[in-house]
Amino acid sequence: MAETASLENIAALNVSKSPGFTLQRDDTFGRYPVASRDLKAGDTILEEKPLSWAPMLDTRPVCLTCLDNVTGSYHCTICGWPMCGKNCAQSAVHKKMECAMFANSKVKLSCKGWDYNSPKPIYNLVTVLRVRAMGTEQKKVADSMEHHLDRWKDKEGFKDKYKVVVDYALDTLKLDMTEDLILQIITNSYTNDFSHTFPSGNQVHLMFPLTAMLNHSCFPNIARSIHYTEEGFKMRVVASRPIKSGEQIFNSYIDILDPVQVRKKHLEETKNMLCRCERCEDPTDLRTYGSAIFCRGCKGPVIPMKEDPGSWKCQKCNEKILTEEVDKLTFDMDAEQKELLANPKLKKIKTIEKFIKKTLTKLDPRNLLIVRLKYNLIGLYGREPGFTSEEMTEATWIRKKQICEEILETLKVLEPGLTVRKARLMYELHLPLIMLAQVNLNKKGDKAAVKKEFQKGLVTLKVALKVFESEPEGSWEREMVGRSEEAVRQIQEIMDCL
Q: Positive or negative, the Cα torsion across 143, 144, 145, 149?
């Protein structure tokens, strides 16, 4: 009965009025949700508020309430933590949690000599203190989650990395905890928490135990989103494609726009797991060739050999390449790509386009590393100085249209159904469609053909907005619905005149 009660307690975390799941348990998957009825794409499966949240592990100094960057100009008068101001220092989320524990221990945090632009290991302590501050029932749920502490302790450098946190909690705050319990809270966060990025770029990690029950697949059947309003954070999980009653509901713990080596490495490092989902077991990556490289001889696609894990083989000339060579090439290109995209000074259209040309000499054009680069270009075309909507040329509008359509083709396979990500791409695509239709209209092109071009742009926009309408109030997507009403009206007026 205890296990049944535990499942019921976790299921009760759902706040959706019409949930589409039920929890089950078996020896293969442990606890997991299945569809409680036939679900259509877009149907809500669950909604959940976090049991706990804290600044991202290994963060630079940030306000513990609003997550904005801090400079050390203001410190909480009770506990000494740097905050953005008095209001945040007096907020319940800070005052009743880490601040109360520092006060009980009669300790103030010393920030002497801090570089406020560099990560501070002591911020990992906030995660520990906020979990410790949970109520009894909340702790039971948190304690029931997988943490894989024994595996993490076997990793070189793990205990040393969090020695600052353990020592401060036990020796300075003198909390009634063990080293293992402190580390367990941290590894629980590693394994189960979800991240959310604020407009500032700062991140928060949140504990959503119910959503964490979803097992992983690199070919998930859900889409999830975290929204922040005046009422706080909320997770929303919807079906991304039809799910039959009784079918398991799968999440993805990685970004699906990664080649197989990058996905597996990330899962091993962050979740201590080896993925064997249908996508990872398919050498063609569900016929997308998202991990393929170029053959050095004939330039055909080179993909993994299912019968020989140590080799990859060209599908055109059958030449073999050692897996370790392919992995090195992929990891090197991935690292170079991440460095480029993480640097605002380098993340520019011309730099990314130049890097794409470089990768195309080594990787198959369908490789997901190239897809990701193109995905980042979409938001820059039409916004970057020199490439704003007013400055875009026919050629650059054609380029934006091309990359939007290419990525949507990939996502038709990897992310079937009308997902929010695909809707965002369609929203980006509608503008080059409309602008190119306007170009052809100015050139006195065939009116019937031009009208069809405008129609395609309008339909693309309307489909995107239809998906956005289902997103929560306060989200960017819902905001775009209201802001796009005038654009829809103007496009329709142009079409009516043709």
A: positive
Q: Give the containing element (helix H, strand E) for 478.
A: helix 476-483
Residue-level pLDDT at 369 = 97
| Confidence at residue 146, expressed as pLDDT on a 0 to 100 scale | 82
How many angstroms separate the Cα of 277 from the Cα of each of 198, 219, 239, 281?
A: 32, 8, 19, 6
Phi first, then psi: give them for residue 309, nearest 5 degrees. -60, -15
Cα 279 from Cα 217, distance rounded (Å):
8
In angstroms, the CA 210 to CA 235 distance is 10
How far is residue 496's CA from residue 271's CA, in Å, rounded to a whole number?
55
CA angle 66, 68, 71 (to 5 degrees): 125
Radius of gyration for the alpha carbons in the chain, expressed in angstroms and rounded: 25
Token look-up 């749920």 returns 141
Residue range 101-106: mean pLDDT, rounded: 96
**3-state helix/strand/coil string of 114-161:** CCCCCCCHHHHHHHHHHHHCCCHHHHHHHHCCCCCHHHHHCCCCHHHH
Percent of the chain with pLDDT over 90: 77
Query: 224 and 290 in contact (C-beta within 8 Å)?
Result: no
How far is 151 from 2, CA to CA, in rounded Å? 27
B/e letters for 385-397, b = 16+ CB within 10 Å, e = fewer, are eebeeeebeeebb
The one-letter amino acid code at 184 reads Q
What's the full length of the chain, in residues?
498
Q: Which residue has the higher pLDDT, 381 or 225?
A: 381
Dump pLDDT digits (tens) for 358-389: 999 999 999 999 999 999 999 999 999 999 99
* Spatial distance between the Cα atoms of 381 and 5, rounded to a whole number of angstroms: 53
DSSP sequence for 259-292: -HHHHHHHHHHHH------TTTT-TTTTTT-TT-
